[in-house]
Write a structure and sequence with these properties.
Strands 1, 2, 3, 4, 5, 6, 7, 8 and 9 form a 9-stranded mixed sheet that branches. The radius of gyration is 24 Å and the shape is elongated. The chain is built from 10 helices and 9 strands. The chain has 237 residues and is an alpha/beta fold. It has helices at 10-13, 17-23, 38-44, 77-83, 87-96, 99-102, 128-141, 158-168, 214-222, 226-232; strands at residues 34-35, 48-60, 64-67, 112-115, 121-123, 145-156, 176-189, 192-205, 208-212.
């Protein structure tokens, strides 16, 4: 186990969540907090097909794998429990008011998470210390769901995202292939929202413009004539 100097005094550690976690670390205690890949998120934004937001949601804290906070990236969960910047204060509050972590009311300050697939979540903004505490607390007590949090979940058309640079590089220099995303629908009431988008590739050439959706791109890639045959109308049949 990695040795880390705790910022808590021996008195503060005695009998509390930290001491118990050090004595019997969970099997995931040394897993590192992963960084949110903002560069990837920006590159896939034109290919987002769904965006879901909720301000009164529940999250399985064991599906939180990382954070947007650069100071905590690379720490293990156990290291973070020992040396988080505000962990002393948060552990003291947890000891005084553990029901806070079990309540369904919205968390204050707000806790916010983001995901690209709905399975791996990252802390976005406030909530890093409380997420860590909840993981260790819930592991001991057999719980998993933290209530009253905010989250944003994005879904991506990975087929078009991966095909776009390949196909773009095969074009003549005077032609373009541009991602186009248009909102198709929106559902929402107080506290939640779900937007759906139509994602296509706009091909510009001397002959004009045409929009290609994922089905068209997949069909094009399967044709023996390939990309140029498809666009010229001479694809083998």
């Amino acid at each position: 186990m990695t040795s880390v100097v705790s910022t808590l005094t021996p008195l503060e550690q005695r009998g509390g969540l930290l001491e118990q976690s050090l004595a019997a670390p969970p099997h995931w205690a040394n897993e590192k907090l992963l960084p949110w890949n903002e560069r990837l998120f920006q590159s896939v934004t034109p290919f987002i097909t769904d965006k879901y937001w909720s301000s009164g949601h529940s999250i399985n804290v064991f599906t939180v794998v990382g954070t947007q906070h650069p100071d905590y990236v690379g720490l293990s969960w156990l290291e973070f429990l020992q040396q988080g910047k505000r962990m002393r204060e948060n552990l003291a509050l947890h000891q005084k008011n553990r029901p806070y972590y079990l309540a369904t009311a919205g968390k204050l300050p707000p806790m916010y998470y983001v995901s690209l697939d709905g399975m791996k979540w990252y802390v976005a903004g406030d909530g890093n210390h409380r997420t860590c505490i909840a993981r260790f607390d819930f592991h001991r007590t057999g719980l998993c769901m933290l209530h009253g949090v905010s989250l944003e979940d994005y879904r991506v058309d990975w087929t078009l995202y991966r095909a776009w640079p390949i196909l773009k590089n095969r074009l003549p220099r005077d032609e373009e292939l541009i991602p186009v995303r248009e909102r198709a629908s929106r559902d929402d009431t107080g506290g939640w929202m779900h937007e759906r988008y139509a994602v296509r590739l706009l091909h510009k050439s001397r002959k004009g413009e045409r929009l290609l959706d994922r089905i068209a791109v997949e069909a094009m890639l399967q044709k023996r004539g390939g990309w140029f045959g498809f666009l010229s109308g001479r694809a083998a049949r």
